[in-house]
Amino acid sequence: MEFMSDISSGADIYRPSLFELLAQEKLRALIQPAVRYILSVYAQRYPRYLLRIVNRFDEFYAVAMLLIERQYLKNYYASFAESFYGLKRIRLINTKIDLPEAAPDVDLQKLRNSDMWRSLFFLVGIPYIKTKLDDLYEKVSENARVRLLGGTFSRVHNERQLNCKERVHRFIRNLFKILYPWLNALYHGSILLYNVLYLYDKTRCYTPWLSLMGIEVRRMSAQDYFERRLNSTRNNLSTKTLLQATRNFLSIILSDLLNFLKSLLQMSIFFSRFLEWWYSSEYARRPGIENRVDVPPPDIIAPDPRGIPLPESPNVCPICTNLLTNTTALPSGYVFCYPCIFSYIEDYERCPITLIKVDINELRKVYNPSA
């Protein structure tokens, strides 16, 4: 993975191809949903310890990636995904002679502390802000409500019932709904433009953020790997005082732990592919008594006294008190009319009967064959 062939047509063998750069970007984008899924699964088993982390997953993931990316930038001058693909970051130095032999000084190319913090902002800060803005736009624009239920169920405010503060707040919401799609298109369009320019060797940066920071992504050379091992050896030997020895020991443990993440990622990819093959093969399809497992039903969640009371008939929606139409179930096990529960969950984000936290994506359609 670290030594890749030069598939570009240029003479610079250390210039990564656009496919390598997009591959590491894709890897970085896949880590977050994978971690979210794992935490969600284990949060059902250990809600006392993991439920708060799942509820604040964006902040938790941003802090974790800040620590990881900081360590990789400090030790390897690359992000976690870039280091996985054998890439590094250097300062963008323009040479007067455009020749491979006229390379700038290696010390001048190394990232400074300010370059690392700027890189952290664009690696961690910008994706976090983008995620929050996407969630805010989805909530403000009511896209899911109008797309699934139609314009009849959209919120309609009466201007006479709004005071001055509420009108200003509504104006800001409407302005955000109008401007954010254009800003989002500009965000993705600028990245696409730089990708095309990089593909045709018109720029040395494949994203506008690298161009703003004055940083270029390059392939690691054999000298880079040799210096990495040499620096790790020097850190192990430089133990003049007890404080320095303790700091070096903790630094070595943290560095080894982060290096293990690369190996763990490779093993996880292999293991997931193996499981995919196994469950799609004939071995997993063979019937047998040992494969039959009687799964007990889940425990019934009792209604909360502060919630909506249950109707006498199970065919009545607890919210609108009418007969169930388009029956939809929550993770708590109770069923409602889809328009009723969709509007309620979007407003309160909890089950109206048990008051447990519920997300819009957890709504499940209940199919009735006799209907």
Automatic annotation (TrEMBL):
A Gene Ontology biological process term? protein monoubiquitination
Keywords in alphabetical order: Ligase, Membrane, Metal-binding, Peroxisome, Protein transport, Transmembrane, Transmembrane helix, Transport, Zinc, Zinc-finger
Classify the protein's membrane topology as the record does: Multi-pass membrane protein
Q: Name one Pfam family in it.
A: zf-C3HC4_2
Domain RING-type as annotated: residue spans: 317-353
Q: Its principal location?
A: membrane
Tell me if Zinc is a UniProt keyword of this record.
yes
Where is this chain's protein located in or outside the cell?
Peroxisome membrane
This entry carries the following GO cellular component terms, namely: peroxisomal importomer complex; peroxisomal membrane
Q: Which family does it belong to?
A: Belongs to the pex2/pex10/pex12 family.
What does this chain do? Component of a retrotranslocation channel required for peroxisome organization by mediating export of the PEX5 receptor from peroxisomes to the cytosol, thereby promoting PEX5 recycling.
Oligomeric and partner information: Component of the PEX2-PEX10-PEX12 retrotranslocation channel, composed of PEX2, PEX10 and PEX12.
* Protein name per UniProt: Peroxisome assembly protein 12
Q: Which organism is it from?
A: Rhizophagus irregularis (strain DAOM 197198w) (Glomus intraradices)
